[in-house]
Amino acid sequence: MKQPDLGAANEKFNPENVLPLLQTISAMVEKRCHRFLSQRYGLTMPQYMLLLAAMYGDATTLGGLADELNCSRGNLTGVADRLERDGWLVRERSTEDRRVVNIRLTDKGTRVWEIKQELAKEMADLSRVWTAEERGVLYRLLEKLYRDLKRRDRAAYLEGAQQVEAPGA
């Protein structure tokens, strides 16, 4: 596969413009997603993300789901309250440890898989401006950026943990 000529793009690249551009694009895409979820299902983006994490993630408690979603448990409690009120999920006390409350999707909540598929179709419309090759390049670049950011976050976390352990050493 022939690689696209990125020479022209390199000439226009200005690091000062990248963050505002990424923030603007992210906000525009999130707005489209929010409108889709709200109009069709009465869901907010945080509610949708919690349903996805509950369906596909490893965690079953609000604390574990908050960790997976990288948000506070306090924020997630309100989101879960509304989802429970609207019949998307239920809270169930663990039979092994009464202190533990697990989240379980209801039949309505398991529809999140269908919602994800529909949302993917809606978002695919955004990629119509690119060729298949350009979509592949974009995905690889975004994936590479994601991996690097995860690596940096992990390194910063480990560095912080070492500093906490070493004050008197």
From TrEMBL:
InterPro entries for the chain: HTH_MarR-typ (IPR000835), MarR/SlyA-like (IPR039422), Tscrpt_reg_MarR-type_CS (IPR023187), WH-like_DNA-bd_sf (IPR036388), WH_DNA-bd_sf (IPR036390)
Residues of the HTH marR-type domain: 15-147
KW Transit peptide (keyword) present: no
GO terms of molecular function: DNA binding; DNA-binding transcription factor activity
Transmembrane domains' residue ranges: none
Keyword DNA-binding: yes
Pfam families (alphabetical): MarR
Protein origin, superkingdom: Bacteria
Assigned keywords, A-Z: DNA-binding, Transcription, Transcription regulation
UniProt-listed SMART domains: HTH_MARR
GO BP term (any one): response to stress
Classification via PANTHER family: HTH-TYPE TRANSCRIPTIONAL REPRESSOR YETL, TRANSCRIPTIONAL REGULATOR, MARR FAMILY
Full protein name: HTH marR-type domain-containing protein
Phylogenetic lineage: Bacteria, Bacillati, Bacillota, Clostridia, Eubacteriales
